[in-house]
Amino acid sequence: MGADLHIHTMRYSGCSNIDPVAALRIASRVGLDLIALTEHGIRWPDDELAALVSKSGVDGLVVVPGQEAACYSTTGIFHGEFLVYGYPESLGSNKTAHELIEMVHAEGGVVIAAHPFKRSKHSEGFYGSAHLARDLNLDGLEVEHPSYDEESRRLAAQTMSDMNIAGIGCSDAHDLRTIGMCRTVFQDRVDSVESLCRAIRKGRVKALNRILANRTR
């Protein structure tokens, strides 16, 4: 089954122009079976998410809550951004990466490094955890992301392989047109946050990049 596990909406992410109802309808239209709404530091309340699914009128699309948390060292050094699934509350963006991972794992959730090798627009480095990821007890990382160049993709794939963790593909959508451009294929049926976490921990996933696939046609 195909999934996009990194989508922002205007409901809780001020940087997104995606209407939540439209997000679900577009996801279904582009052939996705599962999506995660991952607002910045905020987890969708379960009742609100259920109401959203009902309002969308979309059948057969699994919608789970996640969140994207920015992490910093105790001295304010950026650690990167991390996708979280399976944590019951909003996490904000005021924790170290190690603190975040410990908290999420204690609740049975998983933590994915979001775009660890995304090129920074303001420096020669990366806007992500980059090589710090190797020092963290992560469950996976994004190996396919719309902003990646060839080198970013290579570094992400090598890090995933060396750490022996899951590699996922995500759109990081802030605009409807990008939903599903990069996606994750699950070998097992995923129909809840719990089964999503199990599949990621088992590494039974494959990342796809539809942008590259379209270029080769």
Distance N to C terminus: 23 Å
The 3D shape can be described as: globular
Main structural class: alpha/beta
DSSP strand tally: 9
Would you tell me which CATH topology applies? TIM Barrel
Spans of at least 5 consecutive residues whose pLDDT stays below 50 are none
How would you describe this protein?
- This protein has 217 residues and is α/β, with parallel strands linked by helices.
- It has helices at 20-29, 46-56, 97-106, 150-163, 193-202, 210-215; strands at residues 2-7, 34-40, 62-72, 78-85, 110-114, 140-144, 166-169, 182-186, 205-209.
- Strand 6 (140-144), helix 4 (150-163) and strand 7 form a beta-alpha-beta unit.
- The protein is globular, with a radius of gyration of 16 Å.
- The chain starts with a strand and ends with a helix.
- The model has no long low-confidence stretch (mean pLDDT 95).
